[in-house]
Design brief:
By secondary structure, the protein is α/β, with parallel strands linked by helices. The chain folds into three domains: 11-52, Monooxygenase (Up-down Bundle), CATH 1.20.1280.50; 54-214, Leucine-rich repeat, LRR (right-handed beta-alpha superhelix) (Alpha-Beta Horseshoe); 217-333, Leucine-rich repeat, LRR (right-handed beta-alpha superhelix), CATH 3.80.10. Helix content is 36%, strand content 13%. It has 14 helices and twelve strands. The chain has helices spanning 3-6, 18-25, 30-36, 41-47, 69-76, 97-106, 123-132, 149-158, 175-182, 201-210, 227-236, 256-264, 282-291, 308-317, and strands at residues 55-57, 84-86, 112-114, 138-140, 164-166, 190-192, 216-219, 241-245, 270-274, 297-301, 323-326, 329-332. It has a twelve-stranded mixed beta sheet with strand order 1-2-3-4-5-6-7-8-9-10-11-12, with no helix packed on it. Strand 5, helix 9 (175-182) and strand 6 (190-192) form a beta-alpha-beta unit. Helix 5 packs parallel to helix 6 (97-106), helix 7 (123-132) runs parallel beside helix 8 (149-158) and helix 11 runs parallel beside helix 12 (256-264). The longest helix is centred in the N-terminal third of the chain and has 10 residues, at 97-106. It starts with a helix and ends with a strand.
């Protein structure tokens, strides 16, 4: 074969159309994209095309050693088209309020914000970001322990399109903060209150009265809610996905809540139930299955293992059931 046909013109890539280069760049990791942007002016323009900067996930990028406020600013100031940001994960543990300031400055189109477990974030930072990004639809501040009622008030005033919020382990949140949130955010479909120890049955009632589109709620490890509070809540809201757990405290949620769920949630599709006692729950779970025949996923944590007969009976009652998790074992049904 003639040698001239084997020769590859190294400059050929520069003659590729913009659309082809954009397609190639779309497979690059964040660090790679920033590096190739320095090749030439054309590549710099293409590397920061808005179509490549819709989702910024710094939580799992293995090429980035650590993420701090300075690196967040360096990335964000080059584009204003980002709609989803994930700053959760161990790599982002240095992220604080300054990062929220940069997000509010450079990401006016933001729809999805995940800053879970960023303990340096304060109400002041949340105020800045919700005022600058009123189009926010998904907010995850789980484990941001300094977040309080003030943040919920700011979110309620500025984010009318909010659909999902996770404030799990935000132990400063109280009923009146929830009230300020849900009275203005009428489109919420998913909310997580896990470990919000200051929220009471009254807070659940406020959610039920205002979140008419609610489909999924997490009530695990909440010390101040009771069976009656959950019953009154479920009477008003046709929940499809529910997470709830027993607490050791007297007067809290007990096994009887499964009977409440079986009566009030005939369309329930997913149940996550956490049990701190060490006695059998076969009868309760069977009763639940009989009342919730549309279950597709059932997660039972720290429960006494169900008997084989009970397990077989559940699968017969709930033909759509495809996933059962019994700590420490799982069953996936075809």
């Amino acid at each position: 074969m003639n040698a001239e046909f084997l020769h590859v013109d190294e400059t050929a890539i520069y003659f590729l159309p913009d659309q082809v280069l954009l397609q190639i760049f779309s497979y690059f990791k964040l660090r790679e994209l920033i590096m190739v942007s320095a090749v030439c002016k054309r590549w710099h323009r293409l590397c920061y095309d808005s179509r490549l900067w819709v989702n910024l996930d710094l939580s799992q990028d293995m090429q980035i050693r650590k993420v701090n406020n300075k690196s967040v600013k360096y990335i964000l100031r080059r584009t204003t088209s980002i709609r989803e940001i994930n700053l959760s994960g161990r790599k982002c543990r240095r992220v604080g309020n300054n990062s929220l300031t940069y997000i509010s400055r450079y990401c006016p189109q933001l729809k999805n914000l995940n800053v879970a477990s960023r303990i340096k974030i304060l109400d002041k930072g949340m105020k800045e970001i919700v005022q600058a990004c009123p189009g926010l639809e998904y907010i995850n501040v789980e484990g941001c322990m300094r977040i309080s009622n003030g943040s919920l008030i700011y979110i309620g005033k500025n984010c009318p399109n909010l659909r999902s919020i996770n404030i799990g382990r935000c132990k400063l949140v109280q009923d009146f903060g929830l009230e300020a949130l849900v009275k203005n955010c009428k489109n919420i479909t998913t909310i997580s209150l896990e470990n919000c120890h200051q929220v009471t049955d009254q807070g659940l009632g406020i959610i039920a009265d205002n979140c008419l589109l609610l489909k999924s709620i997490n009530l695990k490890r909440m010390r101040r809610i009771t069976n009656s509070g959950i019953r009154e809540f479920l009477e008003k809201v046709p929940i499809l996905e529910l997470s709830v757990g027993l607490m050791r405290t007297t007067g809290g949620v007990t096994d009887a809540v499964l009977y409440v769920i079986s009566r009030q949630c005939p369309q329930l599709e997913m149940l996550e139930f956490e049990h701190f006692a060490r006695y059998e729950v076969d009868g309760c779970v069977l009763r639940l299955a009989e009342g919730c025949k549309h279950l597709t996923r059932l997660y039972l944590y720290r429960c006494y293992p169900l008997s084989d007969m009970t397990l077989m009976r559940i699968t017969q009652i709930c033909p759509k059931l495809s996933d059962i998790h019994l700590f420490p074992e799982s069953f996936y049904l075809g």
